[in-house]
Each structure stands twice: as structure tokens, then as C-alpha cells.
TrEMBL record:
Protein name (Swiss-Prot/TrEMBL): Histidinol-phosphate aminotransferase
The keyword Transferase is annotated on this UniProt entry: yes
Leading EC class: transferase
GO function term, MF aspect, one: pyridoxal phosphate binding
GO biological process: L-histidine biosynthetic process
Catalytic reaction annotation: L-histidinol phosphate + 2-oxoglutarate = 3-(imidazol-4-yl)-2-oxopropyl phosphate + L-glutamate
Modified residues (N6-(pyridoxal phosphate)lysine): 210
Upper taxonomic lineage: Bacteria, Pseudomonadati, Bacteroidota, Sphingobacteriia, Sphingobacteriales
Length: 351
């Protein structure tokens, strides 16, 4: 397929002159800053937060570049991965005209962003084993299809999508394919970041909220061609990531050994919890997972959920989602939390 970014960009985005902030116009170090109308006296906190943050998060990107193996120019850093998702809709989808494809069951923000931006949503359900319906996707594509979202490892099912199937979609679509890899650190599958040089229409989304343990900081990333990243930077707010998040994320990125240790611990615990769950008579199936959670099909998800709530344990009831009927999504906790879960489930009696 022939991919041309200009054919996808909305006309108003092509002609957009982005806001030029004080920190865009002067780059470097100075002794006196009187250009941004900041409070020159400081801030009422131990840390000096009176100055605007780096609008392009240079230090965070530099550290991400070393970890991910891609140049900073191919990285967008935003207020959670949800910001990257929203920008994709605003930059490439004409409200009331264009459409995007999602493959449910999947992450719910794709649908929310589509509705907010008045973009038609086409749903092509995954197969019974939670893989892509390639024929269905091909049939759903029309001249106004701009984006295809694929979450791998998938939320809420936990499995990775077959790599060859994803490559088939990317190679045969002249719009943008978005691979959401929020849980990639827990997966046996390699990241698609390595394929950016091969596919100009590929965007890979990741986050520091999961394996990196920084959900409270709201740090998400998008990896793509330099052309697409330039679009992201053009559309985003001038200071889209606050200074506290940048500083703390930068420090966290120096602790990769700690994070890798936690990942190994979580994967080992995931397999242990999965084995223990299969022993309960009310558990019909424990689905294979490449994430830090497990999807569990049960005889009565609602009753089991309420039973766990009474024990002070909160899981996610996914039983109302198509292809997840009767299922609970259970995050892998600490060894003590996992033990509490299993003990609580052992006292459940659904007669």
C-alpha cells in the first residue's frame, strides 16, 4: 500500500501555526529569565516549580532513547498515553466524516476518544481465541478509514496478538496503524518499535504507568516516524507535561534494574496465581496472559466480585464486555496480596 502522511492530515492541521512559547523561542541557559511572566520569587514548595517546564521533555527523551533504542526525534512524551491517542484523532480524523477501526474487546479509551471527536467507530471483534479477524478488518476498511488500533498485549484479555497478523494489517493499510503496548514489558513478544524504520504508517504507544510503576505521574509515549512526531508536537499543548513529572520520570528511568526485577517477579507470580485459580470449581478458564493481569472466566463473575469486595479485595468485572462474558480481570499483586486473593476465593461457595 502507498502511505502518504499529507493525504491523512486534516487541512486545518496542515495549516496550523502552533503556539510559540517562551521556552520555544529561547533555548539554552541564562542567569535572568524575564520572558515568560513567571513568578520570579519562587514557589511555596521545597522544589522550585515557578518556571515553565521543558516543552519537549529533552532529558526524558534522551533517557528513553537509550532504553528503547530510537532517536529522541522519534519520541513523543505526553500526559499519559491517552494524550497520544487523543492527538491521533484530532490530527488525522475529520469529525463527522472519517472513521477508525478497533478490535474489541479492547482498551476503552479508543471508543471514548472517537466519541469526543465525533469520529465514527467501526468494531471488528477478535476471534474466539482473541486474535485478529483479518478478513473482517479488510472488509471494514473504506476510503475514510484513518486509524486502526491494536492493543498487544491486549486489555482486558491479556494475550499478545499474533505478530504476523499485525504486520499484515500494517502492510495492507494506507492509514495509520496504532499498536498500544502498555503491557509490553511483561510479554514474550518483542516491541514493534524496532519496525518503525520499515513501516512509515506505524505508531507504537507505551506508558510508564505499568511496569515502571509511575501511574500517578501520567507519563505516556508514542514512537513513530519523525514526520508523525512533528505532527504530535504541533498539536499538543505547549507545556503538556509538568515539571514534577519530568523530573521524577527522569530519575526513575535510571533505575531500570529495579524495574526489570519487578517484571520478573510479576511474571513468576502471574504463573503461580494462574495455576492456583484453576483449582477452584467456579473457575472455568484462566486465559493465557502476557500482561500483569489475568482474565478469568467464572460461573458467576458478579457474585465472586461481590464476595471479594466484602473481603476488601477489588478486581475488575469484565463480564458485560463482548467475548468476556462471565470473566473477571485480576491484576497481579504482591505475594501477600495474591495470597489474600486465593484465601478469599477459597471461602466462596456458589452452591
Amino acid at each position: 500500500m502507498s502511505f502518504d502522511l499529507n493525504n491523512l492530515l486534516r487541512e486545518n492541521i496542515k495549516n496550523l501555526v502552533p503556539y510559540s512559547s517562551a521556552r520555544d523561542e529561547f533555548k539554552g541557559e541564562a542567569s535572568v529569565y524575564l520572558d515568560a511572566n513567571e513568578n520570579s520569587y519562587g514557589s511555596p514548595l521545597p522544589e522550585p516549580y515557578n518556571r515553565y517546564p521543558d516543552p519537549l521533555q529533552a532529558l526524558v527523551k534522551e533517557k528513553l532513547s537509550k532504553i528503547k533504542g530510537v532517536p529522541p526525534r522519534n519520541i513523543f512524551v505526553g500526559n499519559g498515553s491517552d494524550e497520544a491517542i487523543d492527538i491521533l484523532f484530532r490530527a488525522f480524523c475529520r469529525p463527522g466524516t472519517d472513521n477508525v477501526i478497533i478490535v474489541p474487546p479492547t482498551y476503552g479509551m479508543y471508543e471514548v476518544s472517537a466519541n469526543i471527536n465525533d469520529v465514527r467507530l467501526k468494531r471488528v471483534k477478535l476471534t474466539e481465541d482473541y486474535q485478529l479477524d483479518l478478513e473482517g478488518i479488510a472488509e471494514a476498511i473504506d476510503p475514510n478509514t484513518r486509524l486502526i488500533f491494536i492493543c498487544s498485549p491486549n486489555n482486558p484479555t491479556g494475550n499478545s496478538i499474533n505478530r504476523e497478523d499485525i504486520e499484515t494489517v500494517i502492510a495492507n493499510f494506507d492509514g495509520i496503524v496504532v499498536i498500544d503496548e502498555a503491557y509490553i514489558n511483561y510479554s514474550r513478544q518483542k516491541t514493534f518499535i524496532r519496525e518503525l524504520t520499515e513501516y512509515a504508517n506505524l505508531v507504537v504507544i507505551q506508558t510508564l504507568s505499568k511496569a515502571w510503576g509511575l501511574a500517578g505521574l501520567r507519563v505516556g509515549m508514542a514512537f513513530a516516524s519523525e514526520e508523525i512526531i512533528e505532527v504530535f508536537n504541533k498539536v499538543k499543548p505547549p507545556y503538556n507535561m509538568n515539571d514534577a513529572s519530568q523530573r521524577l520520570a527522569s530519575k526513575a528511568l535510571d533505575n531500570i534494574e529495579q524495574v526489570n526485577h519487578w517484571i520478573r517477579e510479576a511474571v513468576t507470580a502471574r504463573e503461580k496465581v494462574a495455576r492456583e485459580l484453576t483449582a477452584f470449581p467456579f473457575v472455568l478458564k484462566v486465559y493465557p496472559s502476557d500482561a500483569n493481569f489475568i482474565l478469568v472466566k467464572t460461573t458467576d463473575a458478579k457474585e465472586i466480585y461481590q464476595h471479594l469486595v466484602k473481603s476488601g479485595i477489588i478486581v475488575r468485572d469484565r463480564s458485560k464486555i463482548a467475548l468476556c462474558e462471565g470473566s473477571l480481570r485480576i491484576t497481579i499483586g504482591t505475594p501477600a496480596e495474591n495470597e489474600q486473593l486465593i484465601k478469599a476465593l477459597a471461602t466462596f461457595n456458589n452452591g
